[in-house]
């Protein structure tokens, strides 16, 4: 029985307030056992009545808090921040906040009357000390001082790992700088407050004073006498250090030094030196003897970590000197007293001969079996004989044993027994297999070889590839070795007979066959595990896929893969659809929505060119009919977005190839010349004459004329000629805006085609037309090329003030001239040369043309004017466009320079003195020719966004904005405008649209269209909100809802309505509300009414069913009752606990089904009641058990394999009185006589 200590309210209050007498004024925190004493043990008191005294009966001592508070004062004259007006706001407050974040302490500032600063710091001790240091360094003015102490004392100020220095800085709240070891200065610099300086100075001088009392002495004594000074196991030197208090450092035996260093206070050092010299004097005349001991036995004399030498020194007082390991000497020297040398010599020989070396003959291939897995076999021996060392040498047929002589015989016999056993039951075999089959024998991830090893319990060694060996070694049980070798040879033989087949599969299908992360090819390999499938390296551009394996499997795999490829070919049809680059983003859609939808619905793959690519082709891959469907949908998107015309031209199919030209050169030149129209020829060999031209109406018409003209020429008489010219001449031959080449075409009637960037031969120029036209055009072009080859050098004068314009931006202007005029080289004089001569070098015509162009530029520069355009700053970003694209276009088109002003934030900033003058931040400066600047100003003003207002009902605004603004963002992206919806609190119907004038109309139409859609949706919602109420008796509600809501869910789904049943607290419990379209709500009402009508036809009868059998009829988790209800299509209701009649059960359903269900229930009752047995003896047992535990609610007493469950028994048992614990009759004491009683025992009469 345990005792409980009670903490009263008074003692608790005393504990909290710290008023307990025993602990008052106690500064030290109590120990754990004092604060939480153990409970007292029950023991007999010697006085009989005296209670045991312990900590629980005494006063409770208060626990000491770990949080401390300190107050620091900073006088006015030492304050770093003295601005009194900004107290709590300025730099001082910021510093305090920073200190709190850095240290974790809490700071509170207050100002004294003398304008001094008081800072209260709370927190843990370490945090408070750190905060104090920060306060002193950042809020107090700093002074500095130096203190000089001997250089050798500096390290004591620093301490181990700088800990002493950190502690000193924290304690004094100063910064201490100690000179580096290579600095000869002995001055230590201290910075901090005056008070801190004094404290730090005092502490440093104290450390130095302590070190002044210390001394260092070095004594040189021959190395051979060091063991006598240290003593065995360093006991003697330790005793000397304890006795003198000095520190004695004797170099270890491995260090060849004779100097012994003694440090400490002067008196202590002197005493230690005297003691060391005394030992040396006593031993310097010691006797020595030299003996020969085998080199291999030296380690046994030394012992582990030199312990044997120390043991001999301790026993005999004799030092044993062993030659170093790198020496060949076998002489061991003993040094000591003559009468002890004999004993020491005996010990040396005993230790030398205590270990022996022997060997056991064992074939080298058996070594790993002797060792066992992870050394298990060997561990059994070494655990018994830990001093024995067993060494295996690779390639040698022996095992070396080394250890104590007494253990060696047993270990050797054990090892020989193991070797004999292994030789008798182990065997090995070497088989020859061609190295090219080795990796196939191993299998993927070692699968094959591991299976053979596990199956036959053998070890198989297959040589690595670099050895190029044929021999495979098998080791293990003789039978296992035979079986494994047989299986390996069969595998090798099968591989020799296997077939290799090359399958031709176009490389473009390889990736599709392999699949993402090799998933598809893995399935193929799993299907044909014996076939090895090798794909060529992608860089090799090979179509050969190699299959290797058994002949039949290779053939099956080949057919399977051929079928895969055939399916891919069927799905690999592709179309290239030309779509204007600006519409690609619309085809992709926001977040890829459009392209994803087309891909999913047409089951095709759609690839768009890269954003930085010049290609306009969209490639569609899949089945032919699916590709056509995807193509139509993509073209329809483009048609909706732009004024694109599609025209069909009939041209004989036999002329198509000649019109397309080599690699599409002719048709490409027409497309480029006609504003980038798309010309689509039918598939070669189809026999279709229709050619489709798509693009802007004017350009389509122009392309049509050119195509028909070219086709007519081809039909009449077509001739082609080729000539070559350097690529840098092409631009000059074409001329500005195609002027030069147009002249040649107009004069000769021939068509001239220049190479594109994609063509391999960049020098080839093709001339197409009638023979005469081609000849004349070729002649003119050859003359132009010849003149370009005639290199001349010319000089022109350019005013130095214009030089910078030409060479600026890394000579961009000069590079443009060179590109345009046949690669003319233009050289300007060096900067600072003060020369106006500019040299031009190149073809004569090119030089003349470049010179003319430069003069035009100079004329423009001379005629350059500066013009201002005033546009409010808020529109500047819109005018610039994304990444400055719009402004770059104006600069390029009008050949002017545009400079925007610096941005000024705030409405009042940047305003001029004159209120009528424009603000500087609104003025855009343009420079260039006057007429060009004027045109550029108009272009800039055209980019100024304008605002229009659209009236939209306020209640529709949130639908226009959409979820998280998605709706309004979509409209802004689509129409390239900004749409401003008023704030909800304004309740305004006006929506503002801001953007370029040509975009506003489309945006306004789009917004009004959206309003129409939302209005229609509102009307639809209004129609859907029709409500209908039906009155249904609440007792039918569960039946209408159905099990887990199945029936009501079905009605809701079928009629698309919402059906609401009354809540428990509603007044009208019989009202069911239906919401939806009027006709659908009426239909749902009729469906519910039909169910009610059916339910009203049912009857309900009550029967009396013994309450004792209810649980069995209901069954576990209602399984039994559900079965009855499903079988007879009735509803059963059993009484609730505490019902007036616990035996009454209600059965509801159709009359004929109710009768059947009642008969079944009565039969079950009769069956279950017959199994219940009642006995007064059981009632007594139950009553006695319930006396012991009153909280038993369910008791199953199994007796004679019958189960008693009856609420009557429980009520009877709980009605009995509780036992009388004071009665000696019911609860007798040990050894006390029991009074006789006449009460009958519930268990019957006593039998003893």
Automatic annotation (TrEMBL):
Keywords: Acetylation, Cholesterol metabolism, Coiled coil, Cytoplasm, HDL, Lipid metabolism, Lipid transport, Nucleus, Phosphoprotein, Repeat, RNA-binding, Steroid metabolism, Sterol metabolism, Transport. It comes from the Eukaryota. Gene3D superfamilies: K Homology domain, type 1. InterPro entries: KH_dom, KH_dom_type_1, KH_dom_type_1_sf, KH_Vigilin_N. Residues 767-794 form a coiled coil. One of its GO terms (biological process) is cholesterol metabolic process. Residues 141-209, 213-281, 285-353, 354-420, 425-493, 497-566, 571-639, 643-712, 717-786, 790-859, 863-945, 946-1012, 1024-1093, 1097-1166 form the K Homology domain. Appears to play a role in cell sterol metabolism. It may function to protect cells from over-accumulation of cholesterol. This is Vigilin. It comes from Oncorhynchus tshawytscha (Chinook salmon).
């Amino acid at each position: 029985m345990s005792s409980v200590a009670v903490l009263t309210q008074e003692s608790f209050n005393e504990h909290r307030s710290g008023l307990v007498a025993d602990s008052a004024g106690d500064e030290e925190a109590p120990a754990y056992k004092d604060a939480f004493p153990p409970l007292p043990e029950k023991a007999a008191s010697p006085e009989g009545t005296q209670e045991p005294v312990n900590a629980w009966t005494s006063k409770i001592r208060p626990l000491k808090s770990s949080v401390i508070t300190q107050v620091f004062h900073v006088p006015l004259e030492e304050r770093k921040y003295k601005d009194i007006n900004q107290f709590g706001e300025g730099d001082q407050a910021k510093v305090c906040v920073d200190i709190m974040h850095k240290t974790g302490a809490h700071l509170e500032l207050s100002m004294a009357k003398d304008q001094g600063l008081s800072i209260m710091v709370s927190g843990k001790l370490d945090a408070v000390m750190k905060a104090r240091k920060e306060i002193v360094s950042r809020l107090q003015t700093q002074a500095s001082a130096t203190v000089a102490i001997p250089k050798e004392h500096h390290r004591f100020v620093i301490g181990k790992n700088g800990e002493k220095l950190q502690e000193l800085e924290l304690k004094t709240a100063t910064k201490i700088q100690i000179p580096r070891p290579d600095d000869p200065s002995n001055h230590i610099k201290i910075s901090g407050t005056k008070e801190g300086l004094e404290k730090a100075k005092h502490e440093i001088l104290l450390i130095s004073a302590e070190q002044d009392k210390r001394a260092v002495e070095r004594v040189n004594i021959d190395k051979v006498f060091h063991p006598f000074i240290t003593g065995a196991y360093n006991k003697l030197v330790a005793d000397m250090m304890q006795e003198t208090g000095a520190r004695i450092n004797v170099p270890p035996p491995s260090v060849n030094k004779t100097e012994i260093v003694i440090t400490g206070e002067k008196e202590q050092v002197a005493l230690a030196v005297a003691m060391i010299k005394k030992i040396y004097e006593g031993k310097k005349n010691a006797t020595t003897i030299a003996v020969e001991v085998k080199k291999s036995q030296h380690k046994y004399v030394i012992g582990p970590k030199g312990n044997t030498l120390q043991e001999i020194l301790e026993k005999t007082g004799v030092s044993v000197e062993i030659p170093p390991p790198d020496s060949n000497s076998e002489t061991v020297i003993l040094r000591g007293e003559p009468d002890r040398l004999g004993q020491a010599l005996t010990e040396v020989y005993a230790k030398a001969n205590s270990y022996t070396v022997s060997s056991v003959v064992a074939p080298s291939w058996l070594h790993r079996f002797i060792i066992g897995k992870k050394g298990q076999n060997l561990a059994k021996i070494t655990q018994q004989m830990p001093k024995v060392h067993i060494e295996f040498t690779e390639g040698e047929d022996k095992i070396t044993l080394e250890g104590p002589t007494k253990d060696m015989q047993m270990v050797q016999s054990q090892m020989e027994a193991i070797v004999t056993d292994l030789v008798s039951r182990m065997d090995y075999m070497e088989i020859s297999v061609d190295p090219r089959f080795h990796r196939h024998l191993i299998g993927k991830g070692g699968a094959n070889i591991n299976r053979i090893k596990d199956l036959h319990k053998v070890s198989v060694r297959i040589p690595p590839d670099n050895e190029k060996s044929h021999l495979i070694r098998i080791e293990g049980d003789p039978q296992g070795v035979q079986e494994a070798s047989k299986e390996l040879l069969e595998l090798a033989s099968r591989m020799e007979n296997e077939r290799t087949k090359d399958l031709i599969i176009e490389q473009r299908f390889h990736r599709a066959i392999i699949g993402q992360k090799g998933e598809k090819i893995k399935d193929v390999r799993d299907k044909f595990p014996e076939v090895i499938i090798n794909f060529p390296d992608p860089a090799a551009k090979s179509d050969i896929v190699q299959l290797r394996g058994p002949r039949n499997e290779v053939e099956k795999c080949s057919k399977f893969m051929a079928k895969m490829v055939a399916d891919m070919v069927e799905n690999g049809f592709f179309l290239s659809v030309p779509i204007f680059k600006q519409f690609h983003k619309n085809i992709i859609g926001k977040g890829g929505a459009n392209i994803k939808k087309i891909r999913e619905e047409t089951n095709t793959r759609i690839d768009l060119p890269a954003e930085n690519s010049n290609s306009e082709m969209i490639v569609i891959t899949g089945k032919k009919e699916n590709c056509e469907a995807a193509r139509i949908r993509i073209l329809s998107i483009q048609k909706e977005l732009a004024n694109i015309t599609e025209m069909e031209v009939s041209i004989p199919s036999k002329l198509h190839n000649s019109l397309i030209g080599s690699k599409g050169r002719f048709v490409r030149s027409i497309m480029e010349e006609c504003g980038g129209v798309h010309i689509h020829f039918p598939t070669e060999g189809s026999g279709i004459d229709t050619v489709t031209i798509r693009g802007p109406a004017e350009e389509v018409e122009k392309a049509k004329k050119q195509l028909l003209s070219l086709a007519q020429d081809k039909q009449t008489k077509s001739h082609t000629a080729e000539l070559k010219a350097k690529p840098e001449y092409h631009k000059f031959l074409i001329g500005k805006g195609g002027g030069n080449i147009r002249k040649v075409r107009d004069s000769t009637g021939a068509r001239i085609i220049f190479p594109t960037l994609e063509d391999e031969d960049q020098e080839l120029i093709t001339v197409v037309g009638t023979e005469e036209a081609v000849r004349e055009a070729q002649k003119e072009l050859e003359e132009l090329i010849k003149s370009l080859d005639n290199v001349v050098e010319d000089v022109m004068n350019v005013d130095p003030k214009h030089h910078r314009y030409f060479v600026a931006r890394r000579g961009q202007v000069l590079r443009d001239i060179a590109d345009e005029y046949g690669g003319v080289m233009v050289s300007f004089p060096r900067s600072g040369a003060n020369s106006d001569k500019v040299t031009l070098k190149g073809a004569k015509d090119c030089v003349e043309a470049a010179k003319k162009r430069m003069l035009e530029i100079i004329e423009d520069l001379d005629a350059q004017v500066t013009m201002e355009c005033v546009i409010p700053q808020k529109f500047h970003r819109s005018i610039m466009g994304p990444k400055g694209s719009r402004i770059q276009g104006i600069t390029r088109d009008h050949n002017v320079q545009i400079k925007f002003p610096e941005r000024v934030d705030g409405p009042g900033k940047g305003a001029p003195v004159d209120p009528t003058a424009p603000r500087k931040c609104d003025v855009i400066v343009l420079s260039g020719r006057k007429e060009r600047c004027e045109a550029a100003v108009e272009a800039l003003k055209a980019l100024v966004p304008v605002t229009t207002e659209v009236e939209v009902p306020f209640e529709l605004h949130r639908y226009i904005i959409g979820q998280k603004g998605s709706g309004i963002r979509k409209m802004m992206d689509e129409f390239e405008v900004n749409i401003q919806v008023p704030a909800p609190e304004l309740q305004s119907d006006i929506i503002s649209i801001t953007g370029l004038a040509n975009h506003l109309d489309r945006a306004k139409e789009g917004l009004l269209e959206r309003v129409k859609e939302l209005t229609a949706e509102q009307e639809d919602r209004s129609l859907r909100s029709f409500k209908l109420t039906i009155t249904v008796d609440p007792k039918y509600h569960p039946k209408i809802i159905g099990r887990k809501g199945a029936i009501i869910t079905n009605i809701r789904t079928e009629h698309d309505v919402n059906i609401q049943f009354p809540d428990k607290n509603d007044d009208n419990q019989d009202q069911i509300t239906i919401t939806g379209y009027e006709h659908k709500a009426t239909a749902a009402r009729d469906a519910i009414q039909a169910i009610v009508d059916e339910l009203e036809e049912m009857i309900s009868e009550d029967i009396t069913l013994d309450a004792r059998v209810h649980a069995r009829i209901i069954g576990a988790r209602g399984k039994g009752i559900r079965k009855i209800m499903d079988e007879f299509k009735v509803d059963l209701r059993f009484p609730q606990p505490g019902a007036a009649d616990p035996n009454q059960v209600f059965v509801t359903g159709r009359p004929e089904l109710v009768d059947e269900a009642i008969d079944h229930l009565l039969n079950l009752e009769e069956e279950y009641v017959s199994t219940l047995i009642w006995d007064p003896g059981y009632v007594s047992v139950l009553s006695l058990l319930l006396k012991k535990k009153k909280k038993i609610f369910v008791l199953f007493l199994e007796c004679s394999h019958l189960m008693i469950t009856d609420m009557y028994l429980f009520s009877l048992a709980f009605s009995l009185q509780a036992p009388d614990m004071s009665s000696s009759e019911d609860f007798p004491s040990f050894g006390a006589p029991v009074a006789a009683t006449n009460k009958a025992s519930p268990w019957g009469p006593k039998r003893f």
